[in-house]
Amino acid sequence: MKKMPEKTTPNMFARIFRFYYEGFTSMSWWGKRVWLIILIKLFIIFLVLRLFFFPDYLKKNFTDDRQRSDYILEQITKTTDTDDRKH
Question: Does the residue 71 lie in any domain?
Fold first, then answer.
């Protein structure tokens, strides 16, 4: 009996990449411009605004990693007065 050649399917990441690559290459000029605007906005939001409006609080106020981790643990496990009341 002759053996049929097996169909090989590329891994999932390659299929996802090919899906988006083909979609972007066949996109109209207008669609490419919209995606360019979206990417510029994301760049501004995540990189530029973070630099100016979100300073590194932990690095500025604590000298080593131990102090930073203690502060974070304290903030996470801190309870309020309303949590201590019994209902």
Answer: yes
Would you list the DSSP string of the chain?
A: -PPPPPPP---HHHHHHHHHHHHHHTS-HHHHHHHHHHHHHHHIIIIIHHHHHS--HHHHH-SSHHHHHHHHHHHHH---HHHHS--
CA 28 → CA 16, 38, 64, 77, distances in Å? 20, 16, 52, 52
Instruction: Give the total number of structural domains in the chain.
Output: 1
Q: What angle do CA 77, 81, 87 make, to 5 degrees?
A: 105
Q: Is residue 3 part of a domain?
A: no
State how far the Cα of 38 lies from the Cα of 45, in Å rounded to an integer: 11
Residue 86 is assigned to a structural domain of this protein = no
pLDDT cut 90: percent of the chain above it: 46
State the average pLDDT over residues 29-37: 93
Q: Global pTM?
A: 0.47
